[in-house]
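[job 0412] stage=fold_complex status=start
inputs:
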Amino acid sequence: MKKLINDAHVVVAESVEGFVQAHADLVKSSGNPEELFVSRAGGAVQGKVGLVSGGGSGHEPLHAGFVGKGMLDAAVPGPVFTSPTPDPILAATKAADGGAGVLHIVKNYTGDVLNFETAAELAEAEDILVKAIVVNDDVAVQDSLYTAGRRGVAGTVLVEKIAGAAAERGDDLDGVLAIATRVNDNVRSMGVALTACIVPHAGKPSFDLADDEIEIGIGIHGEPGRKRIKAVSADETTDLLLTPIVEDLGLSGGEKVVLFVNGMGGTPSSELYIVYRRARSQLEAKGVTVERSLVGNYITSLEMQGCSITLLRLDDELTELYDAPVDTPALRWGA
Amino acid sequence: MADTLDIAWATDWVKACAAVVAEHRMELIDLDRAIGDGDHGENLDRGFKAVLVKLEAAEPATVGDVLKLVATTLMSTVGGAAGPLYGTAFLRAAKTADGATIDAAGVADLLAAGVEGIVARGKAEVGDKTMVDAWAPAVEAARAAAEAGKTATEALRAAATAARTGAETTDPLVARKGRASYLGERAIGHRDPGAESSAMLLEAAADVAEGGG
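[job 0412] stage=fold_complex status=done
writing structure:
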């Protein structure tokens, strides 16, 4: 294993330390290793609904990269691929509370859900109103009683962006939750891995994949996906991801979408644009308008090679909120 | 064979848990790599190391005090799903053990409260390929031993043996909860890491009791 790290046990601490130094105009760290979180440099905004997200590390820039005006108020980085415990989530919730309540944005993974639920109970005991949106946009997982439900993956970035804009314009907690729910209801994703990733403290690849194989339907924690196939061309791979998304969303001609092609960490952006190109032409052939585009590494799986495709069905209000100014280390426009 | 288990057993059990998790850290990571995300051994090892530090500074008066210390420490150090699940198990178990000693029926009560906590948080049932598959038969075995007039130590051994068998029964199952549920039939042939660690912890409890604890 070759990695630019000093010690597997301090990867998150050292990375967050550098991150807040580099973006000191936007963010700060709690500075407490027991209750580590990143929040806006200026602190909670009085009267605004606070947005807190978090989860295992290894998905950078998610979530800390999205702390700032127009998006999150605080982010809680857990150990690599492991949900943070309730203590730092509670501390971040308090730091994000401007008196209008706090929305937890939680990716649907068992550990994340359990720890955020516990933190929400503790926050309510301290008279902070907390509601939660559990993001579950991954069409690779069947949503049934027989699984833990669909995972929350790249759609989370769009939930954070658009709910953040709703909070910034002054919506109350129920209003922000309603917007976040609308985004979650209209966003779907699916990913592919060309290689596994190496969790620093494990020291070996998270799953074994032959040189000529790809894994379809991966999540973002280095876990294997639904099926393994021989590697095919970029266009064919794109179609394998896009088709189930379009079907699941029930997209039809005349509708408008955000097309979001996300890199898993180890794929060059040139390849992401090859995927984008194919997805766009396939959508246009169906009469779907690609109204907005996002291409890059926004929610990663360490150094994994691969990508995910996300579609969000837009209406006028969601488009306006998507376009609203955002000023964070990893996403910035209009500001 | 001790008829009852006391606070010395409880503290020795906790130390044995830390030792067994540290010893099998890589084995648990490998089980989790196969059908999860490869962090189970690392997370539990971090949690029980923190428990040892807390135990040094604590002066527990009851078995329940020891278990409660384990619960709160695991909840705030383990993370993932295992932290809240084990944390809740130990917390519920602690509530049943407010005396200086526990007898065989007390062992069954303690384990039953633990599995109720796991089910309350994780919503898993027997056969879902989770830690419940180790805990549920352990409770039944301990209850049967207690009703047959066995000692606390014998009840614990019965529970540990049943947990071990229960963990092994997860091998051929499709997972219906947790991260392995995303794999569908590809989870078949792999042991659930949570069931395995549960069996390890209960075996440690019986080993310590038989060692004169």
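[job 0412] summary: The CA atoms of residues 55 and 69 of chain B lie 8 Å apart.
[job 0412] exit 0
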